[in-house]
Amino acid sequence: MNRFVSIDIVRGAVMVLMAIDHVRVFAGVPAGGSTPELFFTRWVTHFCAPAFVFLAGTSAFLYGRKVARAQLAKFLLIRGLGLVLLELTLIRFTWTFNFDYAHYTLAGVIWAIGWSMVILAVLVFLPSRVVAAIGVAIIVGHNMIPNIEDPSWLLRVLYAGWMFEAGSVTIVVLYTLIPWVGVMAAGYAFGEVFQFPPEKRRRICLAIGLAAIVLFIILRTTGIYGDPRPWERPSFLGFLSTSKYPASLQFLLMTLGPVLLVLPLLENARGRVARWLAVFGQAPLLYYVLHIPLIHGIAVLISLVRTPESTGWLVANHPMLPPDVPPGYMWSLPMLYLVTAVVVVLLYFPCRWATRSRAR
Questions:
Q1: Which residues of 110-143 are buried (b: 16+ CB within 10 A; e: fewer)?
Q2: pLDDT at 2 (0 to 100)
Q3: pLDDT digits (tens, 9 = 90+) for 266-311
Q4: Environment class of residue 150 by beta-carbon count within 10 Å: exposed (0-12), middle (13-18) or buried (19+)?
Q5: Do the beta carbons of residue 120 and residue 57 sit within 8 Å?
Q6: Alpha carbon of 334 to those of 32, 337, 347: distances in Å?
Q7: N- or C-end of the chain: fewer Cβ atoms within 10 A?
Q8: How sure is the predictor about 88, in pLDDT bands with cuts at 50, 70 and 90?
Q9: pLDDT tens across 161-213, in order?
């Protein structure tokens, strides 16, 4: 399979942005805020999950052009179940640095990606247009699902989110399967676009991306559909403050629209930054598995020097159920961004080794 450098660059860019948000967790900085600097520190990371899940579907389609559908389905099934297991075990530990799995086991983005791959393993036997219709229907229609006061564990996994008991284990669902299954299915069908000549591919990406942005503006301005959180006029920050858990239609239009606009612009990207981002984009799972314990370990070292009395906070149940941030612990934003830069630089080397090893 020939690699599309635009996919690698976009995927690498969102991996870098993701590090900002995860450093923020261990920095004790709130998720958003009334000031622009706090708000955009969180908001810019909203592009990560939509872009990554969508392009995971596209990558599955491109891989499927080289192998039989049964082999693609088997790959997605095994990979998906492996990701779910990884999320519930190793990744959960790296978030918390504790072994209290019974009272807190996190079902995060890797969980949602894993189950989406399992479902995609079935969908790949359908025509791409049917998969596209299913994906778009889920993305567009899921905000019609009514709120249920006391949802079952299955509804929490599918859409409602939050906590449920699985035997003696408490699972906290951060990323529900709906709408992410739809996002991956739409990304898979979008892979057809990469079979077209470059100019036609560019036109389609620009048309879909612009349409998504325009539809977002219309829906956000009118408030007629697509997000449970209304726009609090005349605040611009409120205009951009859409719901991520579960990801609303407006949230997905706001994030995926710009991603689709950027893709064709990066197809001929060259230079050091493009090559650097592409390295991350070619080793996304390695990056993800390494970046959380690296950030967490650096946060512990900083706390031992800066606020030793607060270091115990870093072995709590992050990112969903930690206690309140200890007084005097929270980092400044310059410190948050400095640590992010250090983390990204350190992660470049194992990711480069992995991509070169795979190439060899």
A1: bbbbbbbbbbbbebbeeebeebbebbeebbbebb
A2: 54
A3: 988 889 999 999 999 999 999 999 999 999 999 999 999 999 999 9
A4: exposed
A5: yes
A6: 16, 5, 20
A7: C
A8: very high
A9: 999 998 889 999 999 999 999 999 999 999 999 999 999 999 999 999 999 99
Structure tokens at 294: 């690296």
Q: What is the pLDDT of residue 33?
A: 84
Of 66, 297, 292, 80, the closest CA to residue 195 belongs to: 66
Single out the residue of 278, 82, 100 nearest to residue 172, CA to CA.
100
Structure tokens at 257: 């629209």
> Computed from CA positions of residues 260, 261, 264, 269, in that sequence, does the dihedral angle turn out positive or negative?
negative
What would the 3-class secondary structure string for 146-164 be?
CCCCCCCHHHHHHHHCEEE
**CA 35/CA 332 separation, integer angstroms:** 14
**What is the separation of C-alpha 324 from the centre of its chain, rounded to a whole number of angstroms?**
25
Identify the helix (H) or strand (E) that includes residue 190: helix 177-190
